[in-house]
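Hi all, posting the design record for the shared folder.

TITLE: backbone redesign
STEP: 1 of 1
STRUCTURE INPUT:
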């Protein structure tokens, strides 16, 4: 086979693969484009058939109207930021500490306890939903942010711990020995050596936690009954519980709610992909 023919076949295969990826991307982007299109329509254009993908005219006023409707979306946004920020910071710190103990310290029963930790990934969240609700009711935590925040910081971080442990094990152990010679204890090694070397994995955990908590619907639905404590996910649902549903306002609010997750992922996707790939391959 000549060189030119080989290059032609390789270029054809790459073009075919890129075409398939573009078609797949378009398929996945279609629902979001529909939401975006609906958010810019007049109310009478929403159920028009055939579908008007490009609104005419484009009604940008749906966004300020949705945000300043009779629903307190500023309050929903603040509650979501409080819950998400607290969970992400707390989960990164607690999971990295546990992962450091599993990856860098030597103690009896370490591997057995790590297998027990991983086994909790097979436990469906629905199984512990009722016992948790009864426990939090007795603690007086219902209708507060505590049942939504505390379990994710201290009890439901098996996968982030696994991800961080795998990454921590790729860091040379000679750095720990050098830190001990310089007078660092275990916490000093964790804080000054391991964490700065594991930014991609920490970024991956933070992004995953942010995207889940920002869109978390079930737990606030179970534990919160005061509208002033609702996050954005429950606020969106309130558009559909009114006597009349303004679908253009609902879609505008949905676009604004999803925008932080989209922007965060595109800004930090390098850390996310690097953290997941390195943790999975080198661990």
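Okay, here is what came back for every position:
SEQUENCE:
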């Amino acid at each position: 086979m000549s060189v030119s023919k080989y290059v032609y076949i390789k270029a054809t295969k790459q073009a075919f693969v890129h075409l398939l990826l573009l078609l797949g991307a378009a398929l996945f982007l279609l629902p979001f484009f529909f939401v975006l299109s609906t958010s810019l329509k007049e109310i009478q254009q929403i159920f028009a058939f055939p579908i008007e993908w490009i609104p005419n005219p484009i009604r940008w006023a749906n966004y300020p109207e949705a945000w300043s409707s009779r629903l307190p979306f500023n309050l929903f946004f603040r509650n979501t930021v409080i819950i998400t920020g607290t969970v992400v910071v707390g989960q990164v710190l607690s999971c990295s500490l546990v992962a450091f103990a599993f990856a860098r310290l030597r103690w009896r029963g370490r591997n057995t306890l790590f297998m027990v930790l991983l086994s909790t990934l097979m436990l469906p969240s629905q199984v512990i939903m009722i016992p948790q609700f009864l426990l939090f009711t007795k603690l007086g935590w219902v209708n507060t942010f505590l049942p939504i925040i505390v379990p994710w910081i201290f009890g439901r971080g098996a996968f982030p711990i696994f991800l961080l442990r795998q990454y921590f094990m790729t860091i040379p152990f000679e750095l720990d020995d050098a830190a001990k010679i310089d007078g660092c204890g275990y916490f000093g090694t964790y804080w000054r050596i391991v964490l700065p070397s594991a930014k991609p994995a920490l970024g991956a955990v933070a992004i995953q936690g942010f995207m889940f908590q920002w869109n978390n619907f079930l737990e606030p639905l179970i534990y919160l009954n005061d509208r002033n404590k609702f996050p954005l996910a429950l606020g969106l649902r309130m558009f559909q519980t009114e006597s009349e549903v303004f679908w253009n306002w609902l879609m505008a609010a949905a676009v604004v709610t999803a925008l932080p997750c989209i922007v965060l992922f595109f800004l930090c996707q390098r850390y996310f992909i690097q953290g997941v790939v390195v943790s999975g391959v080198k661990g």
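COMMENT: The first helix runs from residue 3 to 38.
Let me know if anyone wants the other runs.
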